[in-house]
Task: structure prediction
Amino acid sequence: MYKKFYGLSGSPFSLLPDADFLFYSRRHRRAVNLLAYGIFTQAGFIVITGDVGAGKTTVVRRYIKSAEADVAVGVISNPSPTLGRLFSWVAMAYDLAPDPDDAKVYHAFVAFLLEQYAKGRRTVLIIDEAQNLSAETLEDLRMLSNVNNEKDQLLQIVLVGQPELLETLNRPILRQFAQRIAVHCHLDPLVPVETAAYIRHRLAVVGGAPDLFDDAACAAVHYFTGGVPRLINLLCDQSLVYAFSEEEPAISGEVVAEVVLDRGRMGLTPFRKLPEGWRIENLAAETAAILTEIQLAAKFESATKK
Result:
């Protein structure tokens, strides 16, 4: 809709977890490196956590896209206690034949692990939305991970989930499981400078002008989203639609605020809750500190390049 108007080759703020758009904030870079390190060093369990929309799935997709040929990756995207047994999920993740008999599935999976090991390949099981797993299912995973030999880990398991996952893992019944977690990384929201860099990074991927969102617009986006990547995408995408509708050549802070106000009036908004009577005229004062931080960082970066 707005892509041609703004000279974009694609949608810069899609809500889909596209690895090509991964922005390496300090925490996201660390998560990518820890994930790669944990798998390379044969860590039994790796845990990546973060709030809703923090970019966890995008980090995982980035790893999958760059995984070496000697790694057999299986993915369980959204496990649910109501959708079947653990072994059925594991079998489907590696295209193994399902069976109502868990014992048969287990032995088939062990045979698969041994086959991969004989070929010099590692097997990695990634479970996204792992906060949905019960303590009993996590314990089953721990037992499944016992399939190894004296020197090598035949199966490595990556759990990706919201902070509730940590609450489950900290339960006394799972203390043996917690002791096997070799790598853990938590994704925090972006700070103001990272929010501005994130917006411009995603625009650059699709050939957008870096100043399509000016500093004030970036400050407003951070103010209303708290630096959560998914909310940034949602707000920026809607702001582009609003600006396009008015044939505005760039997105201002006022346009961003208008989107938030309209969502608030509809009564269903994921953005910052604004007090009754909040007006766009309040925006400049309330985002002044954020704007200053973004501008100072830009000046410092420019000075260091000279």
